[in-house]
């Protein structure tokens, strides 16, 4: 199928635990409730883009446990094509999210079936990647598969949006295939090998490694980037956050949708910051993402 975006990445079920505060080591506290929602960085980004009107296909894997149905629910509702999502024996990927009353979260991810997203599975999606405008990648699947997906997509002249999250060691040759490379300030610091200061221009520093375009998110401080030899910045939207889970994925999915529509990275980041801001106003990741036409902050 021809599509705007192919996402190669993780598909999880998110077990969200509501707590008054995060416990100290060795401490037991009583929670306020729990809910299981669809998640996974790859699936989140696919849903965010599809809800904004992009045609999206997913390459990934789920297990044979009951969590698989939950994990696929948001993708199905958003109309994401699932022909290249495999079912493998064993558990679906699971993220345990502890959400405190101050809206801060901590997350433990158990890869499960995401470990089955192998280079051979990526190669089986060769024609899908060839027909897409953009291939979106993250780092919740094996690194060998991220590297291979970037190579296959680039070989077909499909634009590669590489979100190195969680932070991971990737060869410089893989980073150089990104257009854009999308990271937060912590991930950028790890790639550069030093802590960042907001007064610096780490996007330009990353671009100097041979990356065609770079986008760096700074939370409440906004977004900076570098493209075509020039640096730019976009301010954040000010909102009262309820749950920040999946906000970075909302940003990446919206960025991909706008890039697929022909926008520059700076213009795409303007919409993406608004979509990310909207996502923190509701509980969960995919369930909080706006649909095309919804009002945005």
Q: Could you please describe the fold and organization of this structure?
A:
The protein has 297 residues and is of the alpha/beta class. The chain has helices at residues 41-51, 67-78, 119-124, 126-131, 143-155, 172-175, 185-192, 202-207, 247-260, 265-279, and strands spanning 3-8, 12-19, 33-39, 56-62, 81-87, 93-100, 105-110, 132-137, 159-163, 178-184, 213-217, 223-227, 230-234. The protein has 10 helices and 13 strands. The strands form 2 sheets. A 9-stranded mixed β-sheet has the order 5-4-1-8-9-10-11-12-13, sandwiched between helices. Helix 1 packs parallel to helix 2, helix 1 (41-51) crosses helix 9 and helix 9 packs antiparallel against helix 10. The mean pLDDT is 94.
Structure in a nutshell:
With 297 residues, the chain is of the alpha/beta class. The chain has helices spanning 41-51, 67-78, 119-124, 126-131, 143-155, 172-175, 185-192, 202-207, 247-260, 265-279; strands at residues 3-8, 12-19, 33-39, 56-62, 81-87, 93-100, 105-110, 132-137, 159-163, 178-184, 213-217, 223-227, 230-234.
């Amino acid at each position: 199928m021809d599509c705007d975006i192919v996402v190669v990445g993780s598909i999880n079920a998110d077990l969200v635990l509501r707590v008054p505060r995060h416990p100290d080591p060795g401490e037991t506290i009583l929670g306020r409730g729990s809910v299981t929602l669809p998640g996974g960085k790859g699936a989140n980004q696919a849903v965010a883009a599809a809800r904004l009107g992009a045609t999206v296909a997913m390459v990934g894997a789920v297990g044979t446990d009951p969590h698989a149905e939950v994990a696929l629910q948001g993708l199905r509702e958003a109309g994401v094509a699932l022909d290249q999502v495999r079912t493998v024996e064993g558990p679906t990927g699971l993220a345990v999210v502890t959400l405190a009353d101050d809206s801060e979260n901590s997350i433990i991810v158990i890869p499960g079936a995401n470990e089955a997203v192998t280079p051979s599975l990526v190669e089986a999606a060769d024609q899908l990647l060839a027909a897409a405008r953009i291939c979106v990648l993250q780092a919740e699947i094996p690194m060998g598969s991220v590297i291979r997906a970037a190579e296959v997509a680039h070989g077909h002249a499909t634009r590669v949006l590489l979100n190195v999250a969680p932070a991971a060691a990737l060869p410089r040759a893989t980073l150089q295939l990104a257009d854009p490379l999308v990271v937060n300030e912590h991930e950028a610091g790890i790639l550069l090998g030093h802590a960042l200061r907001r007064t610096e221009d780490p996007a330009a520093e990353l671009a100097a490694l041979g990356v065609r375009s770079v986008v760096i998110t700074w939370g409440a401080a906004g977004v900076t980037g570098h493209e075509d030899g020039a640096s730019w910045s976009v301010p954040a939207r000010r909102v009262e956050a309820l749950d920040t889970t999946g906000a970075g994925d909302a940003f990446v999915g919206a960025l991909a949708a706008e890039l697929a529509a022909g926008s520059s990275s700076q213009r795409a980041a303007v919409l993406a910051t608004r979509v990310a801001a909207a996502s923190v106003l509701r509980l969960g990741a995919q369930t909080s993402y706006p649909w095309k036409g919804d009002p945005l902050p």
